[in-house]
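User: I'm putting together a teaching handout on how multi-component assemblies are represented. Below are the sequence lines for each component of a complex, exactly as they appear in our records. Could you produce the 3D structure of the whole assembly as structure tokens, so the students can see both representations side by side? Please keep the chain order the same as the input.
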Amino acid sequence: EVQLVESGGGLVQPGGSLRLSCEASGFTFSSYWMHWVRQAPGKGLVWVSRINGDGSSALYGDSMKGRITTSRDNAKNRLYLQMSSLRVEDTALYYCVRGDRFDFWGQGTLVSVSS
Amino acid sequence: DIQMTQSPSSLSASVGDRLTITCRASQDIRNDLGWYQQKPGKAPKRLIYAAFSLQSGVPSRFSGSGSGTEFTLTISSLQPEDFATYYCLQHNGDPPTFGQGTKLEI
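Assistant: Of course. Below is the structure of the complete assembly, with chains in the same order as your input.
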């Protein structure tokens, strides 16, 4: 059974940093691109970043470009999102998503940016 | 960026109704489009991939059609569990982009 379990969210002050993690199981993790997608409270879905299977290439959306780094550890079946210089508007539920066709989603981890 | 214009943004319907949601892409995306259902407090769930292929386990009352720039999601006979928010997603061009969502209400 495919499982994606995000963790690392929490309350952080504006300007702070946070590292999200997504633990994958039930499939060959290294064979899949992986994405981060976020959803602000009551709002729609916004793509954040993508990383290829071996971790050699990542792409970032404009919403957080320059403030985030996506990486992965295929030996540990984990995807990461390092976020810095966080803003109030970064408050959202962050999902990790499998594959180039976005076929399977984790349950998300909530990031709240507030003073 | 490819813009995905989804309509309507909200829709009131009744059990048994047939309804259609539309997504228009700002440029040709071939059939690189998926449809997702999201219920409150839950992660999105893929219903349709490659514009018209039904995800395994999804009821056959859901169907997708279209190619190029215009796509539709049809629910043939609404069931109580179908009341949710629906999104389209294009993954043909970078960055991937979502439609604004359609909230389906009773």
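A couple of points students might notice: Chain A has a mean pLDDT of 97. The first strand of chain A starts at residue 3 and ends at 7.
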